[in-house]
Amino acid sequence: MTADESAPTASVEDRREEWAGPVPVPTGANTEFWAATLEGELRYQHCDECGTAQLYPRAVCTGCSAVDPPFEPSEGRGTVYSYTVCHVPGEPGFGDRTPYVVAAVDLAEGPRLLALVDCEPEAIEIGDPLEVRFWQVSDEAALPVFVPE
């Protein structure tokens, strides 16, 4: 996708009033990533030097150490690489969500992202297609949350 093309966007649901879980704090290399989430856009870094695609955002490329790899818009689609069903809340704010699903999601563009999947635990299997949605949890960030296609 070129810079001229508009990136695909997903729905952003305002969860600021009810969210009691961890809240991202945009800083440094991840600022652009979190700003895009508020617009319903999932972004990943794609190195111009070596072609490495990476997510979570970092100040250097994990493939060649180039500084500040640029961001690209993702389709917001992926497949379940692996998952776990959490029956005991691992973070504050998740107690009323148990059981909940956390999955390693292989994005269509290559990076793998660990994310919450908004579905019943019995409704997910390895290889299932997913698409991203966003839960706005602060004025500065919306969490990427995946749902089955």
From TrEMBL:
<dbReference type="InterPro" id="IPR022002">
    <property type="entry name" value="ChsH2_Znr"/>
</dbReference>
<feature type="domain" description="ChsH2 C-terminal OB-fold">
    <location>
        <begin position="73"/>
        <end position="134"/>
    </location>
</feature>
<dbReference type="InterPro" id="IPR012340">
    <property type="entry name" value="NA-bd_OB-fold"/>
</dbReference>
<dbReference type="InterPro" id="IPR052513">
    <property type="entry name" value="Thioester_dehydratase-like"/>
</dbReference>
<dbReference type="InterPro" id="IPR002878">
    <property type="entry name" value="ChsH2_C"/>
</dbReference>
<protein>
    <recommendedName>
        <fullName>DUF35 domain-containing protein</fullName>
    </recommendedName>
</protein>
<feature type="domain" description="ChsH2 rubredoxin-like zinc ribbon">
    <location>
        <begin position="34"/>
        <end position="65"/>
    </location>
</feature>
<dbReference type="Pfam" id="PF01796">
    <property type="entry name" value="OB_ChsH2_C"/>
</dbReference>
<dbReference type="Pfam" id="PF12172">
    <property type="entry name" value="zf-ChsH2"/>
</dbReference>
<feature type="region of interest" description="Disordered">
    <location>
        <begin position="1"/>
        <end position="26"/>
    </location>
</feature>
